[in-house]
């Protein structure tokens, strides 16, 4: 389970990195947010974090159950769960359009995937 969630999340993070670097306005406009210079600046500044997460998740995809893998899962739950919550808040306050809820659902699924992977040892039964 961990391998699948880590690989899928690595791909998502890599796609976000590329989008954030090359087309931050597209990302902002997707959620009904006006892409001004400040917003685009912040999106581009966030892009290396997603590149780093993609690399981390790619490199640990085959990690055995361990305290380190558990810590990585916990961090991913906080990151993706937090992004999901912030999207819901953005929608609730009118800062973002309805598509942010689709993204929030996907982010919550990723966080949930890491929560499940954290509980499983990936051993054959």
Keywords:
single chain; 125 residues; mainly alpha; 5 helices; 0% strand
The arrangement of helices and strands along the chain is: HHHHH
| Mean pLDDT rating | 93
- Shape verdict: globular
Tally of strands: 0
Total DSSP helices:
5
Strand residues, percent? under 5%
Number of domains: 1
> Rg to the nearest angstrom?
15 Å
Low-confidence stretches: none
Helix content: over 70%
Give the helix/strand class.
mainly alpha
Major beta sheet summary: none
- For the termini, the CA-CA separation is 13 Å
Secondary-structure map:
Layout: H1 2-22, H2 24-30, H3 37-59, H4 67-92, H5 99-119
Helix pairs in contact: 1-2, 1-3, 1-5, 2-3, 4-5
Structure overview:
There is one protein chain. The mean pLDDT is 93. This protein has one domain. It has helices spanning 2-22, 24-30, 37-59, 67-92, 99-119. It is globular, with a radius of gyration of 15 Å. The longest helix has 26 residues, at 67-92. The protein is mainly α and 125 residues long. It starts with a helix and ends in a 6-residue tail after the last helix. The chain contains five helices and no strands.
Summarize the structure.
The chain is mostly helical and 125 residues long. It contains five helices and no strands. It has one domain (2-119).
